[in-house]
Structure formats: structure tokens, C-alpha cells
Amino acid sequence: MDLGLINGYAAVALLMTGLYIVLAYDNPIKRLIGLSIFQAAIFVLYISMGRIAGGTAPILAEGIERYSHPLPHVLILTAIVVGVAMLALGLALIVRIHEEYGSIDEQHILELEREPDA
Amino acid sequence: MSEHALLAIDAVLLIILLTTAIAIARQRNLFAAAMMTGLFSLTLACLFVLLDAMDVAFTEAAVGAGISTVLMLSALALTEYRDHPTSRGQHTLALLLCFAVGGLLMFAASEWPALGAPDTPVHQHPITAHYLEQSQQEIDLPNVVTSVLSSYRGYDTLGEVTVVFTAGLAVLILLLGVRRDNHEEDDA
């Protein structure tokens, strides 16, 4: 196996872990953590693509010929900030749900909803 | 740094990342899981420094390891940090699904270009040379990432700011709405 491919494989493994957390747990905070890990997998994939062997960070300087590609870096910068905005919104919704029902457990809320006087 | 040394450090960091992710998945205490997310983000920032993405590493360390962890801890303080167990059937189904998706992607990943290969479409595209050779004259900034972020792809950044603004507004409405409702109940 070519050792240069490990970043791709690791990105897929991280993606699987994130997907598992999202699917296997009912707790919404845990699901948001899973989504963050899923996102991180994509970040690893993009940043790995931008790198070039023998290159350096894309800050122009005398005597340097090779730079890593700046565009994946820009896209991932945007993605990180948008990801945090999404996390904040998700957590605010969870706090609101907790205010309303006194619980954030999906099964528990569904039981509360089924009660006739609720 | 030689390519072999870099790949060795890269492998170690990836193993730490994966171990942390699996530990988060198995952790029942959400407080511990939130702290491990901070550790995960910090390791990710180290990986970005290794892969020559300094600006991304700064952002990940500040926003990912800092703000995200604080947000998560404050949400946990306002709600609860016990994770109720879910049924075994749901876990099995989740595992099956994620191995199906992961298997397909692993198959695809074997065809992806190796780390640092110079002959990939990413590095061969004419826009790469334009950004790296012309931005010094056109934008007059040594940091190409800043040039691309604020000028060449300025509309992207405008969109990003719009998203962040909207999300911030929505969070304020959601959380201030809670307080107003409580006051109305107090008056009644």
C-alpha cells in the first residue's frame, strides 16, 4: 500500500465514525458532535489535496518556488466558520427544546407528546 | 523535512485523531465527550500545520478547539449531560449503514492521488499558477490565502458572513424568546 494514501483512508474512517455517532445515538448533543467529526473528515481530505511535496505554506517569499494550493485552504476556512455557526444554532435549538420539555431525549419527548393532556 | 518523516508524523496524528473520534463515540458522559472534541480539534490543527495550511490551523485552533468547546459546554450546563442508552438494534443498523458507506468510499479512496503528488488536477489547473504568480501584483499581499479569501473569492466570504449573521440572529431569537416567555408566565 502506498503510504501517501493514508490521508484519504483516514478521512473515510473519520467520516464513518461521525456517521455512526449521528445514526446510533438519540441524544441531539451527541449527534452534533458526530456531525462535527463528519465535517472534520472532509477538512482532512481537502487540506491533503492542497499539499504538494517539497512545497510550503502559500505565503509568498523570495527563493521559494513551490507552494501548497491556497484554494482548498480558503474553502475549508469558510467551512470551519460556517460549521461553528451551524453548531451554535443546533445547540440553541436543543436548549430551547430542553426549556419546553425538560428533557432532550427523543424517546422521552415522544412519550410526553403522546400523553393526551400534553 | 524529508517526505518520509512527514508521512510518519502524519500517520501518528491521524491515529490520534481516529482514536479520539472512537473514544468520543463510546463515551456516555457528554461532558467528557465535549472535552475530547476540544482535543480532537487541537490534533486536527496540528495536522493542518504539518500539511502547510497555517491559516486553516489558526482557525481550527481558535474556532474549533476554542469556541466550539465553550459553546458545547454552555449548552450542556443548560441541559443535561447524561446520554440515555439506545437500543442494540439501532446500533447494529447504524454500524451496517456506516460500513456500507465506508466500504464504498474506501474503494474510491484507493484511487485518490497520493499526498503531495504534483500531477493532480488540483495543482495542474491554470488558476493555481494565476493565484501564486499574479496575486502579488494584483492584490499586493504576501499571503495568498488572504488574497483569495478577501478578493478573488470575496463573494464566497460575503455569503459566509451572511450565514454567520443569520445563524447568530437565529440563536439570539431562540434564546431571548425563552426569557420573554418566562417573564410572561411570571406576570400571569
TrEMBL record, chain A:
Topology within the bilayer: Multi-pass membrane protein
Membrane-traversing stretches: 6-25, 32-54, 74-95
Tree of life domain: Bacteria
Chief place of localization: membrane
InterPro entries: CPA3_antiporter_subunitC, NUOK/Mnh_C1-like
Record keywords: Cell membrane, Membrane, Transmembrane, Transmembrane helix, Ubiquinone
Compartment(s) where it occurs, according to its Swiss-Prot or TrEMBL record: Cell membrane
Gene Ontology terms: cellular component: plasma membrane
Pfam family, one: Oxidored_q2
Protein name: NADH-ubiquinone oxidoreductase chain 4L
Annotated organism of origin: Oceanococcus atlanticus
Automatic annotation (TrEMBL), chain B:
Subcellular localization: Cell membrane
Mode of membrane association: Multi-pass membrane protein
Keywords: Cell membrane, Membrane, Transmembrane, Transmembrane helix, Transport
Gene Ontology CC: one annotated term: plasma membrane
InterPro entries: CPA3_Na-H_Antiporter_A, MrpA_C/MbhD, MrpA_C/MbhE, Nuo/plastoQ_OxRdtase_6_NuoJ
PANTHER family: NA(+)/H(+) ANTIPORTER SUBUNIT, NA(+)_H(+) ANTIPORTER SUBUNIT A
Protein name stated in the entry: Putative multicomponent Na+-H+ antiporter subunit A
Organism from which the protein derives: Oceanococcus atlanticus
